[in-house]
Design a protein that fits this description.
This protein is α/β, with parallel strands linked by helices and 463 residues long. Helix content is 24%, strand content 25%.
């Protein structure tokens, strides 16, 4: 199943390379907010409710849970006075097991009435210790937060937990005053070059004035200059840029309109490392390699292994060198790969190293359809690997949903503008609205990545 995507033109690169870059702001280190999470000091800092008896056993917290309780919260182990800040990204992680296979819950919430929660996750426990990790953005600002393990609501058993951590990390959204509107996007460049065109005002108001991604690939020239220029301009404006890294070797290998990519594994690794380093400590959102995990149908086992190796390397680069970036490894769309299969592919490609995964890039599935798919992917991630990940949805062209076609189909419409929330962690215009998917559909003469005013107007009007 072929996918549309966007190729960036080089029109804005000369301007970007001429920018005077300001020093990146220092990265904020992650902060541990749980006390005595390794239980090296016994049970200090932790409490337990009725229907539990706790002790430390071989370095782990051991909680003997009474059976016959009605609700999960009838038997709890927790820590109070946990500081939380709204809008800050957190990762709760721990190692846990039980004397029998049971499902418990882990909760982060306000520790007083009305006990507002900001994380509530089921955890499937077995007799073998598993590592659990849950990323979330707090909706609470309080010094009276709680981290809880809710263990009731079933038969009696023994619960074990160790290495409990709640890390508060940098949040690129909180470090900026909003999403960056690219003044050199393809739509903005077209409007500037065609002020007398009757469509210019409509395209300016409906598309060019909105925040959207800039795509980077083998057309971008020196990648350090290109990325640093774009991110530096956004940082100077105190805005959050959206970038797409799209240069995996064998890109669109199964006969699509946007083939290409770096010439070798080594060349790609050099390129993606430079990309991450060019962002540095500045805030950014990055979508990593659209379609790379869906486009397996014409690849053999060795090619898939090489691709996974490159993607793992890419995720490590953003984890280690772009410290205020939320990177999302692309996970295809709701109509392409089964959710459980995609969860396995994301895991193998290193999604655990980055913020999360992206969905619906350059496609048309509704936000509701995509949210259902994203939640299914997360359900499989949790079942198989004991963690979930935030995800983002490309809403640039999903306002009317899909019609079964992918290449410049008629009757599509702009979706919700880039924003926080809306069903996913972020809704983003990843595909640049008005850029052609290829010489097909209602733009049979417009090459992939080339802006078409007619396509743009069709998306604005929805007809």
């Amino acid at each position: 199943m072929q996918r549309p995507r966007t190729l960036r033109t080089a029109l804005a690169l000369a301007a970007a390379s001429a920018l005077v870059l300001l020093p990146a702001t220092p990265a904020a280190a992650s902060t541990e907010v749980v006390v005595n999470g390794t239980f090296a000091n016994g049970t200090a800092g932790w409490w337990n409710s009725a229907n539990t008896a706790v002790s430390v056993d071989t370095g782990r917290l051991k909680a003997v849970v009474t059976g016959g309780t009605a609700n999960p919260w009838d038997a709890q182990v927790g820590q109070s006075s946990v500081p939380l800040q709204s809008g800050v990204a957190y990762v709760l992680s721990f190692d846990a097991s039980a004397s029998a296979a049971v499902t418990a819950r882990t909760v982060v919430q306000l520790g007083a009435s009305p006990y507002t929660g900001t994380l509530n996750q089921a955890i499937a426990l077995t007799t073998t210790a598993k590592h659990f990790s849950f990323a979330f953005t707090s909706t609470l600002t309080t010094t009276a937060g709680q981290v809880l393990f809710q263990l009731g609501g079933g038969s009696g058993y023994t619960f074990y937990v160790d290495n409990v951590s709640l890390l508060a990390g940098p949040n690129p959204i909180g470090l900026t005053s909003g999403f960056y509107v690219d003044p050199n996007s393809n739509p903005a460049t077209w409007v500037a070059a065609n002020p007398a065109d009757s469509r210019a005002a409509t395209i300016q108001a409906g598309i060019a004035s909105k925040p959207m991604a800039r795509w980077f690939g083998n057309w971008s020239g020196d990648i350090t200059t290109a990325v640093a220029g774009f991110v530096g301009a956004a940082d100077t404006a105190d805005k959050l840029p959206i970038l797409v890294a799209y240069n995996i070797p064998g890109r669109d290998a199964c006969g699509g309109q946007s083939g290409g990519g770096a010439g070798s594994v080594a060349a790609y690794k050099t390129w993606i490392a430079a990309f991450a380093n060019a962002i540095g400590n500045r805030p950014a959102i990055v979508v990593l390699e659209p379609d790379a995990l869906g486009d397996f149908s014409c690849m053999d086992t060795a090619a898939i292994a090489a691709r996974n190796d490159m993607l793992v390397y890419a995720t490590q680069q953003f984890r280690d060198h772009a410290t205020n970036t939320w990177a999302y490894l692309d996970g295809g769309n709701a109509g392409w790969v089964a959710a459980d299969t995609m969860a396995q592919r994301l895991y193998a490609a290193g999604v655990g190293n980055v913020r999360g995964f992206s969905l619906n890039v350059s496609n048309y599935y509704t936000t509701a359809e995509t949210t259902t798919y994203g939640n299914s992917v997360n359900s499989s991630l949790q079942t198989r690997y004991a963690y979930t990940k935030p995800y983002v949805i490309d809403t640039s062209r999903n306002g009317n949903g899909g019609n079964g076609q992918w290449c410049n189909p008629a009757g599509r419409k702009l979706g919700a503008v880039s924003q926080v929330g809306g069903g996913a962690e972020l809704l983003l215009w990843v595909k640049v609205p008005g850029d052609s998917d290829g010489q097909c559909g209602i733009a049979p003469t417009v090459p992939a990545g080339t802006f078409s005013a007619d396509l743009a107007v069709h998306l604005i009007t929805g007809v």
